[in-house]
Amino acid sequence: MAETKRLASKVAVITGGGSGLGRAMALRFVAEGASVLVADVNEAGARQTVDLMGEASAAHGDFRRVDVTNEEECALAISQATERWGRLHILVANAGIGTPGFISTMEKQDWERVLAVNLTGVFLSAKHAFRAMKESGEGGVILTTASVAGMQGTPHLGAYGASKAGVIQLTQTLALEGAHFRIRANAISPVWADTPMIGEFTAGSRSTPDDVRARLLAAVPLGRLASPDDVASAAVYLASDEASFLTGVVLPVDGGHMAGHGG
Known about the structure:
Elements: E1 11-15, H1 20-31, E2 35-40, H2 43-51, H3 57-60, E3 61-65, H4 71-85, E4 90-93, H5 108-136, E5 140-145, H6 158-178, E6 183-190, H7 196-203, H8 209-218, H9 228-239, E7 250-253
Parallel strand pairs: 1-2, 1-4, 2-3, 4-5, 5-6, 6-7
Helix pairs in contact: 1-9, 4-5, 5-6
Protein backbone atom coordinates (compact mmCIF):
# COMPACT_ATOMS: atom_id res chain seq x y z
CA MET A 1 0.00 0.00 0.00
CA ALA A 2 1.38 3.38 -1.01
CA GLU A 3 2.47 5.67 1.79
CA THR A 4 0.69 8.96 1.23
CA LYS A 5 1.88 10.64 4.44
CA ARG A 6 -1.65 11.80 5.22
CA LEU A 7 -0.69 12.14 8.90
CA ALA A 8 2.61 13.95 8.40
CA SER A 9 3.78 15.77 11.56
CA LYS A 10 0.78 14.56 13.58
CA VAL A 11 1.20 13.20 17.12
CA ALA A 12 -1.02 10.34 18.25
CA VAL A 13 -1.64 8.25 21.35
CA ILE A 14 -3.15 4.82 20.67
CA THR A 15 -4.44 2.80 23.60
CA GLY A 16 -4.50 -0.95 23.24
CA GLY A 17 -1.71 -0.57 20.70
CA GLY A 18 0.19 -3.66 21.80
CA SER A 19 -1.73 -6.07 19.56
CA GLY A 20 -4.61 -6.50 17.13
CA LEU A 21 -6.36 -3.45 15.75
CA GLY A 22 -4.34 -1.06 17.89
CA ARG A 23 -1.06 -2.41 16.57
CA ALA A 24 -2.29 -2.19 12.98
CA MET A 25 -3.33 1.42 13.50
CA ALA A 26 -0.04 2.35 15.17
CA LEU A 27 2.01 0.92 12.31
CA ARG A 28 -0.15 2.57 9.65
CA PHE A 29 -0.10 5.93 11.44
CA VAL A 30 3.70 5.92 11.52
CA ALA A 31 3.82 4.87 7.86
CA GLU A 32 1.57 7.85 7.12
CA GLY A 33 4.00 10.24 8.84
CA ALA A 34 2.71 10.41 12.42
CA SER A 35 4.60 10.05 15.68
CA VAL A 36 2.84 7.51 17.89
CA LEU A 37 2.86 6.69 21.58
CA VAL A 38 1.71 3.09 21.96
CA ALA A 39 -0.13 2.64 25.25
CA ASP A 40 -1.06 -0.81 26.50
CA VAL A 41 -1.43 -2.67 29.77
CA ASN A 42 0.81 -5.27 28.13
CA GLU A 43 4.10 -3.37 28.11
CA ALA A 44 5.93 -6.08 26.16
CA GLY A 45 3.30 -5.91 23.43
CA ALA A 46 3.57 -2.13 23.27
CA ARG A 47 7.35 -2.35 23.02
CA GLN A 48 7.06 -4.92 20.23
CA THR A 49 4.71 -2.65 18.26
CA VAL A 50 7.31 0.12 18.43
CA ASP A 51 10.03 -2.32 17.35
CA LEU A 52 7.90 -3.24 14.32
CA MET A 53 8.01 0.39 13.22
CA GLY A 54 11.58 -0.26 12.08
CA GLU A 55 13.84 2.70 11.41
CA ALA A 56 10.97 5.11 12.13
CA SER A 57 10.75 3.94 15.73
CA ALA A 58 13.69 6.00 16.98
CA ALA A 59 12.14 9.34 16.06
CA HIS A 60 8.46 8.53 15.75
CA GLY A 61 7.68 5.70 18.16
CA ASP A 62 7.34 5.49 21.92
CA PHE A 63 5.48 3.27 24.38
CA ARG A 64 4.10 3.26 27.87
CA ARG A 65 2.37 0.73 30.08
CA VAL A 66 -1.14 2.07 30.64
CA ASP A 67 -4.11 0.53 32.39
CA VAL A 68 -6.94 2.61 30.93
CA THR A 69 -9.05 2.12 34.06
CA ASN A 70 -6.44 4.15 35.97
CA GLU A 71 -6.94 7.87 35.39
CA GLU A 72 -3.42 8.87 36.40
CA GLU A 73 -1.89 6.45 33.91
CA CYS A 74 -4.11 7.79 31.13
CA ALA A 75 -3.08 11.35 31.97
CA LEU A 76 0.61 10.43 32.03
CA ALA A 77 0.40 8.84 28.58
CA ILE A 78 -0.97 12.09 27.13
CA SER A 79 1.72 14.07 28.95
CA GLN A 80 4.49 11.80 27.68
CA ALA A 81 3.42 12.30 24.07
CA THR A 82 3.08 16.06 24.37
CA GLU A 83 6.37 16.44 26.20
CA ARG A 84 8.26 14.43 23.60
CA TRP A 85 6.66 15.76 20.41
CA GLY A 86 5.22 19.13 21.39
CA ARG A 87 1.46 18.57 21.32
CA LEU A 88 -1.26 15.99 20.76
CA HIS A 89 -3.25 15.85 17.53
CA ILE A 90 -4.92 12.43 17.72
CA LEU A 91 -6.16 10.03 20.36
CA VAL A 92 -7.29 6.56 19.36
CA ALA A 93 -9.15 5.14 22.37
CA ASN A 94 -8.97 1.52 21.29
CA ALA A 95 -8.19 -0.56 24.38
CA GLY A 96 -10.84 -3.18 25.02
CA ILE A 97 -11.59 -6.67 26.29
CA GLY A 98 -14.14 -9.32 25.36
CA THR A 99 -15.35 -11.55 28.21
CA PRO A 100 -18.30 -13.20 26.43
CA GLY A 101 -21.16 -14.73 28.34
CA PHE A 102 -24.93 -14.91 28.60
CA ILE A 103 -26.60 -12.28 30.75
CA SER A 104 -28.30 -14.93 32.90
CA THR A 105 -25.00 -16.56 33.88
CA MET A 106 -22.56 -13.64 33.81
CA GLU A 107 -20.83 -12.76 37.06
CA LYS A 108 -21.17 -9.18 38.27
CA GLN A 109 -17.39 -8.70 38.40
CA ASP A 110 -17.06 -9.75 34.75
CA TRP A 111 -19.74 -7.26 33.72
CA GLU A 112 -18.06 -4.48 35.68
CA ARG A 113 -14.61 -5.29 34.30
CA VAL A 114 -15.80 -5.07 30.67
CA LEU A 115 -17.46 -1.71 31.28
CA ALA A 116 -14.45 -0.44 33.22
CA VAL A 117 -12.02 -1.15 30.37
CA ASN A 118 -14.22 -0.62 27.32
CA LEU A 119 -16.25 2.39 28.43
CA THR A 120 -14.68 4.04 31.46
CA GLY A 121 -11.27 3.57 29.85
CA VAL A 122 -12.44 5.50 26.79
CA PHE A 123 -13.85 8.24 29.03
CA LEU A 124 -10.59 8.62 30.97
CA SER A 125 -8.38 8.61 27.86
CA ALA A 126 -10.65 11.04 26.03
CA LYS A 127 -10.95 13.34 29.05
CA HIS A 128 -7.23 14.02 29.18
CA ALA A 129 -6.73 14.08 25.42
CA PHE A 130 -9.58 16.60 25.12
CA ARG A 131 -7.91 18.83 27.73
CA ALA A 132 -4.58 18.74 25.89
CA MET A 133 -6.22 19.51 22.53
CA LYS A 134 -8.28 22.33 24.02
CA GLU A 135 -5.25 23.89 25.71
CA SER A 136 -3.26 23.83 22.47
CA GLY A 137 -5.91 25.97 20.81
CA GLU A 138 -5.50 23.96 17.61
CA GLY A 139 -8.07 21.23 18.16
CA GLY A 140 -7.54 17.58 17.34
CA VAL A 141 -9.19 14.25 16.66
CA ILE A 142 -10.53 11.65 19.07
CA LEU A 143 -11.24 8.26 17.52
CA THR A 144 -12.89 5.45 19.42
CA THR A 145 -13.16 1.76 18.60
CA ALA A 146 -16.78 0.73 18.91
CA SER A 147 -18.33 -2.39 17.33
CA VAL A 148 -21.33 -3.53 15.35
CA ALA A 149 -22.22 -5.28 18.64
CA GLY A 150 -22.84 -1.80 20.01
CA MET A 151 -25.32 -1.06 17.22
CA GLN A 152 -27.53 -4.12 17.63
CA GLY A 153 -28.16 -6.86 20.15
CA THR A 154 -25.83 -9.86 19.99
CA PRO A 155 -26.35 -13.03 22.02
CA HIS A 156 -23.41 -13.97 24.25
CA LEU A 157 -22.05 -10.42 24.05
CA GLY A 158 -24.30 -8.58 26.49
CA ALA A 159 -21.55 -6.81 28.41
CA TYR A 160 -19.37 -6.18 25.38
CA GLY A 161 -22.26 -4.83 23.28
CA ALA A 162 -23.50 -2.60 26.10
CA SER A 163 -20.01 -1.16 26.57
CA LYS A 164 -19.66 -0.43 22.85
CA ALA A 165 -23.11 1.16 22.67
CA GLY A 166 -21.91 3.42 25.46
CA VAL A 167 -18.74 4.21 23.50
CA ILE A 168 -20.86 5.31 20.53
CA GLN A 169 -22.97 7.67 22.65
CA LEU A 170 -19.90 9.00 24.44
CA THR A 171 -18.21 9.67 21.10
CA GLN A 172 -21.20 11.61 19.80
CA THR A 173 -21.23 13.70 22.98
CA LEU A 174 -17.51 14.37 22.61
CA ALA A 175 -18.20 15.54 19.05
CA LEU A 176 -20.78 18.06 20.27
CA GLU A 177 -18.68 19.28 23.20
CA GLY A 178 -15.53 19.47 21.10
CA ALA A 179 -16.89 21.24 18.03
CA HIS A 180 -16.35 24.73 19.50
CA PHE A 181 -12.70 23.85 20.12
CA ARG A 182 -12.11 22.23 16.70
CA ILE A 183 -11.96 18.79 18.31
CA ARG A 184 -13.55 16.13 16.12
CA ALA A 185 -14.73 12.79 17.54
CA ASN A 186 -15.72 9.75 15.51
CA ALA A 187 -16.25 6.05 16.19
CA ILE A 188 -15.06 3.14 14.08
CA SER A 189 -17.46 0.21 14.36
CA PRO A 190 -15.89 -3.01 13.04
CA VAL A 191 -17.51 -6.37 12.49
CA TRP A 192 -15.57 -9.43 13.66
CA ALA A 193 -11.90 -8.91 12.91
CA ASP A 194 -9.02 -11.37 12.66
CA THR A 195 -7.33 -10.41 15.93
CA PRO A 196 -6.43 -12.20 19.16
CA MET A 197 -9.75 -11.06 20.65
CA ILE A 198 -11.72 -13.34 18.35
CA GLY A 199 -10.13 -16.28 20.14
CA GLU A 200 -11.60 -15.03 23.42
CA PHE A 201 -15.08 -15.05 21.94
CA THR A 202 -14.84 -18.43 20.22
CA ALA A 203 -13.35 -20.00 23.35
CA GLY A 204 -16.46 -19.00 25.28
CA SER A 205 -18.85 -20.61 22.82
CA ARG A 206 -20.48 -24.02 23.07
CA SER A 207 -19.70 -24.63 19.38
CA THR A 208 -16.37 -25.58 17.85
CA PRO A 209 -14.10 -22.73 16.69
CA ASP A 210 -14.69 -23.73 13.04
CA ASP A 211 -18.46 -23.66 13.52
CA VAL A 212 -18.29 -20.27 15.21
CA ARG A 213 -16.11 -18.85 12.44
CA ALA A 214 -18.47 -20.16 9.77
CA ARG A 215 -21.42 -18.53 11.54
CA LEU A 216 -19.57 -15.21 11.78
CA LEU A 217 -18.65 -15.30 8.09
CA ALA A 218 -22.26 -16.03 7.14
CA ALA A 219 -23.27 -12.72 8.72
CA VAL A 220 -20.89 -10.68 6.52
CA PRO A 221 -22.13 -10.14 2.95
CA LEU A 222 -18.59 -9.64 1.62
CA GLY A 223 -17.77 -13.13 2.91
CA ARG A 224 -14.75 -12.49 5.10
CA LEU A 225 -13.85 -11.09 8.47
CA ALA A 226 -12.39 -7.62 8.76
CA SER A 227 -8.61 -7.46 8.65
CA PRO A 228 -6.74 -5.20 11.07
CA ASP A 229 -5.61 -3.17 8.06
CA ASP A 230 -9.23 -2.58 7.00
CA VAL A 231 -9.79 -0.89 10.33
CA ALA A 232 -6.45 0.94 10.21
CA SER A 233 -7.34 2.39 6.80
CA ALA A 234 -10.59 3.79 8.18
CA ALA A 235 -8.72 5.23 11.16
CA VAL A 236 -6.15 6.97 8.95
CA TYR A 237 -8.91 8.61 6.94
CA LEU A 238 -10.91 9.78 9.97
CA ALA A 239 -7.76 11.09 11.67
CA SER A 240 -6.58 12.96 8.57
CA ASP A 241 -7.46 16.43 7.36
CA GLU A 242 -9.41 14.76 4.53
CA ALA A 243 -12.14 14.12 7.10
CA SER A 244 -12.09 17.66 8.50
CA PHE A 245 -15.89 18.02 8.19
CA LEU A 246 -16.72 14.68 9.78
CA THR A 247 -17.55 14.58 13.47
CA GLY A 248 -20.03 12.51 15.45
CA VAL A 249 -19.84 9.80 12.79
CA VAL A 250 -20.17 6.09 13.55
CA LEU A 251 -18.44 4.33 10.66
CA PRO A 252 -19.20 0.61 10.30
CA VAL A 253 -16.24 -1.31 8.88
CA ASP A 254 -18.35 -4.39 8.49
CA GLY A 255 -18.43 -5.84 4.99
CA GLY A 256 -22.11 -4.95 4.69
CA HIS A 257 -23.19 -6.59 7.96
CA MET A 258 -25.31 -3.66 9.16
CA ALA A 259 -26.99 -3.28 5.75
CA GLY A 260 -29.07 -6.39 6.40
CA HIS A 261 -29.09 -10.08 5.57
CA GLY A 262 -29.87 -12.12 2.53
CA GLY A 263 -28.71 -12.23 -1.05
